[in-house]
Amino acid sequence: MLINKRLILAHFWLAFAAFGLALLLGAWQMFVRSPLNPWHFNPEFYYRSVTAHGSAMGYVFPTLIAMGFGYAISEAALARPLIGRRWAWAGFVLVAVGTVVAMLPVSMGLASVLYTFYPPMIGNPFYYIGVVLVVVGSWIWVALMSINLAAWKRDNPDKPVPLAMFANVAGSYLWGWTAVGAALELLFQIIPVALGWRTTIDAGLARVFFSWTLHAIVYFWLMPTYIAYYTIFPRAIGGRLYSDPMGRIAFILFLVVAMPIGVHHLFADPQVGAGFKFMHSVFTGLVALPTLLTVFTICASAEVASRLHGGRGLFGWVGALPWRNPIMLATALSLVMLGFGGAGGLINMSYQLNAPVHNTQWITGHFHLIFGGAIVIMYFAIAYDLWPHLTGRALDNVRLMRLQLWLWFVGMIVTTFPWHYVGILGMPRRMAYYDYANSALAAQALSVSLSAVGGLILLTSGILFLLVLIRGQRAPRQEAGAYQFAVAVHPPIRLPVALNGFGLWLALMIGLTVVNYGFPIAQLLALPATNVPAVYVGAPR
Amino acid sequence: MSDQPLFSLRNRWFTASVGITVVLAVVSALAGLVILPLAQPDLKLSGIWDAICSAAGVPRASPDTIAQQPDGKLSNVVMTADTLSRGDSVSIGRGATLAQRCAICHGPQGVSDANSPNLAGQFAEVTYKELNDFKTGARVNAVMSPFALTMTDRDMRDLAAYYAYLPRVPSPHVDAKLVAPLIVTIGAPMRNIAPCGSCHGDIDTKPGSPWLGGQSAVYIKAQLQAFASGSRRNDISQQMRNIARNMTAEEIDQAARYYEAQP
Prior knowledge:
The complex is a heterodimer of chains A (541) and B (263). In chain A, the strands form 2 sheets. In chain A, strands 1-4 form a two-stranded parallel ribbon. In chain A, strands 2-3 form a two-stranded antiparallel ribbon. In chain A, 70% of the residues lie in helices and 1% in strands. In chain A, helix 1 (5-32) runs parallel beside helix 3 (85-107) and helix 6 packs antiparallel against helix 17 (503-526). By secondary structure, chain A is mostly helical. Chain B has 263 residues and is mainly alpha-helical. In chain B, helix 1 packs across helix 2 (48-56), helix 3 packs across helix 7 (153-165) and helix 5 (124-136) runs antiparallel to helix 7 (153-165). The chains are: A mainly alpha (541), B mainly alpha (263). At the A-B interface, helix 9 and helix 17 of A face helix 1 and helix 2 of B.
């Protein structure tokens, strides 16, 4: 039952518009810093573009997807209209206005600080204020998801919360708490300096605050993807979810252990003690657990579906899966990219192995493979699955959809595999310029060129994706029926109270955050003379 | 749903999840804060508490070691964005009187053809730093050193304020058509040379970096060569020596000629 279709569609369209523009910038960046482009541009344009690309892809695009998909889940899974429709629109407007407010100074070259802010670099205050507006808009969504769940539980005290809604609210709580780190950094560290009230900044403390957000934000991006694995994929291929409680446990584990791990982004930073780096490393390792549970459950669900439709043999059932179905294809390609990306992630999270790849192109390759690859391809799948229900018009060009998904997969592999490789060769990231004529760098030229070609393939796929959606908006009307989520093999009738709510898990999440972040933050707050002069970017000369 | 209370020791989910989390946190803290630091011989820890403090990142007093002494005098001027940014009229007036001694080389209006630096419009903190360095011996010049030796700190500040106050005079060598060489616009990243323009104007200016527009090419070239050979060494943190050493003779030439042709 989808009622507020315009609200959901508005979120998706704004998300994909931001995605399309940011994708164009990304492809340009890949080209311009590759050997295919002779050096004849202002490097400042590159950093400007990277800032816009990162901010749009990191903050705007996935947040809007999570919000729009979240509203859809709330209405479809709880089978009742969204409570707080006006608030939801207000949140959307805040995100939209915040995006424009942030992007204006970036496009004018006044805030080329990259989306991770990098204090002591300080850009135009409107950039940060815009990001804060986006976050505040998304917090409205967090509150609405919680309110809608609470209202449903009050009216249905004896029913288990539908898995889709349970996972959705887990994602919203994760975001609500993880965004606090960046909010603290922006409000107490960066914005006062950007407004000129202070001229120095505790860059170390600011980076610790950002690491609080920076890793768990990835799991927030991941949530819609995992929700699609559990609640769309089994239904789309004509099967059932292998285990409903297993899904709940996976989302709970994300909620608890995604937070206290961000310091693995600061392995090379001196302001955090080695002991805390180790503790964060241990918990980063634990995040593999919910992913491994998920891979198992999803593969089991695929086997259930295949055998229901006549799949036979030890591995014969794999061939009998409905490979022509775009959701099937997207999920399989997503899991392959998740496998490669996860393997790379195990290297990043280990203190010693991280050292040779830290701040190299390996890292850029890694998060593009995980986020741009495994996660975003499922955003496409979500859109393909939801679109007929939102527009009341069929998406019938399945061939084009499959081509688009294949192109995205191939493009992502061609982009990120050479990217990882040049990282191992030592190519630093966040640089506009590489002198490939230098004999020490000449060996990287071929790989970087390949990456740039991959970027163009991704751009082609992105354009095809938007084309499919636009054509879907213009197709003849055709009622798609009620939107359904996958049913489990054994639908839960009674659940332990712990698997039906979040009290315990939120307490553990906050407790672990205090254990792993409390001392490093308190110590940096208490230490005198840790401030450094701010470096204003784009200031008048 | 189950009516069992959630936060209760009789709820197995509660005890198991809290128990596992606490065990994990304690074990990882023990390993990270105690066992691993003690296993590293280089840390020279005096006990468990010392290990915990070290691994938690508590700043420790560095062991007493004899710092290597520099083999020459170092500049003692500390540069910040506010250093000498404002000169008052008394200071400028005093500076104008003192500057009569300087006019023979630097020109009555702070500009001359003698291949000595043009000081009109130069940032005050730059003039002040050089005078100070001549006085302390961090920079040595047969003509300038004796002049600076007798100056008081106030004299130097006043002179700097006066020259900063004088308007920049367009150089007779201005050539607007001269294209900025690569060393000025992008430097040489592979040789660790930042663009000249990122500190000395065109792209950005940094505190303590002189404005080079209109300076004599002969002077700029001589200074780059002096930095490269190490005969001039009053650049804080060696940044100019490191850059000049890595510049080719051709790049030194290009940069000198380019800046001479700037207003």
